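Tokens in:
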């Protein structure tokens, strides 16, 4: 089942349940999917594009929540965080810090990285292999930590 059809199903359920936060988040996802479909030459969206889209939406909402929190608008920050939870349901399961470290150690061994100078090499491979399963910031921080230990 494609992401778009999953979203449509969830939209129906959210409407029946009168869940306004879920409705808003799901409509935002559907809107972004439609924008991608109408702007490109292809009418199909790859899994990688879907994952990147969802991660971008989560990042935007995290930034908005931080901004609202900094300005003492906790009700708006809570709303953004609730939308993040709805969006995260459509992403693949995220790696735990231990699992992420294990995966990155394998990648470092494969690429032969020995120091922080090789971070770009490791990040290129890690970004492709771990797409959707870990945030870019978490990957970068762990790679720095592992390469500085080497």
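Residues out:
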């Amino acid at each position: 089942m494609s992401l778009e059809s999953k979203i449509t199903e969830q939209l129906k359920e959210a409407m029946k349940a009168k869940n306004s936060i879920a409705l808003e988040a799901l409509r935002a996802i559907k809107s972004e999917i439609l924008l991608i479909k109408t702007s490109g030459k292809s009418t199909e969206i790859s899994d990688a594009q879907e994952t990147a889209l969802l991660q971008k939406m989560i990042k935007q909402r995290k930034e908005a929540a931080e901004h609202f929190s900094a300005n003492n608008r906790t009700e708006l920050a809570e709303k953004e965080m609730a939308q993040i939870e709805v969006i995260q349901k459509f992403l693949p399961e995220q790696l735990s810090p231990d699992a992420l470290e294990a995966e990155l150690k394998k990648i470092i061994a494969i690429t032969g990285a020995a120091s922080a100078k090789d971070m770009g090499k490791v990040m290129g491979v890690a970004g492709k292999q771990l797409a959707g399963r870990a945030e870019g910031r978490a990957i970068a921080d762990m790679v720095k930590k592992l390469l500085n230990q080497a």
